[in-house]
């Protein structure tokens, strides 16, 4: 188990991590998420004793890393795959790590086989591709057969086979009762790999909960409704009826409608009352990506904008229409619908940068509700408005 208590790290006047407390438990894959620059790598470095906290502390199995007996056999980590001596072969790199940690040399060939590098084990690592370097870093993490593993962006540069392999590796390590802590920006991958999430923004804890709870706390369930493709007037008629009945409608890329605010039977009844045939009516949960975007929108330091291509706009060919806007695509500021209990507009624009101890101006002391890092309640949610369905609600990541 990894335990951080009040962990804080300042670099000069820059606070990279602030008052972070969490536990990473064995037997599960814990995803570590946060926008660029939010402090994930800094936290991992403090866990591994590579950086000293300015305040607070972090332990692995009850000890700070530098007091951990036989640390390289208990903890394996991939932090920066490029941090290898490029002139050494992959095998020699791993052999030198093994010798330093009292690990038998035969283990080197084992891990080279596990990561699929046995055929290039004699090649200098400076000639390795990004993905080969990642595989070598994962081999180094596995070398001591450790109970605690940390991976910072392990799938960076891996091909699809490699991504699938890492996913299954993480799950298998956790299933063996190990502690697996993995940072990633790939939400679809995290949704498939992680059981639990720790989310930080500007160095502070934003969420510490299961993936399922994270999605339901940060987005509303919705219905996908599809009318016959060849009869757009049916789609329009149903959209109007749903809106009039208090639902919210957004078009999806494939022509379906995404509806929030009305239970499925009500949508079905509306379609029947308005003589609209349905090709699909299915319950859905927002994707982890959508829920994550909603939660972290106020904690993003580096935000992309639409390329205006000033003076470079190409004329569309005659008769061509610009593409129809689609929820979440090419629309900065679009986020998943909020969970029902939060009320308000279903598609709120991004908030201003949150007030806090650094970055934006401090929040007034008497306004605790303004704390953007307040953790959502851990208690189970009340049932969403959508009616129970024979099929369990599907996450968009699973589609
Ligand atoms: N050695 C350092 N000196 C000064 N500032 C640093 C140092 N290391 C990190 N920082 C700053 O601390 C903040 C957190 O950086 P960190 O690398 O931990 O973020 P991250 O969440 O891992 O980001 P990313 O997702 O982009 O990898 C950033 O503002 C970064 O510039």
UniProtKB/TrEMBL annotation:
Q: Which PROSITE patterns match?
A: ABC_TRANSPORTER_2 (PS50893)
Task: List, for all copies, the residue spans of the domain called ABC transporter.
Answer: 2-227
Q: Segment Disordered: which positions?
A: 306-399
Q: ATP-binding: is it a keyword of this entry?
A: yes
- One of its Pfam families is ABC_tran
Which keywords has UniProt assigned to this entry? ATP-binding, Nucleotide-binding, Transport
Positions with biased composition (Pro residues): 335-352
Compositional bias segments (type: Low complexity): 380-390
Regarding protein family, the annotation reads:
Belongs to the ABC transporter superfamily.
**Protein name, entry field:** ABC transporter domain-containing protein
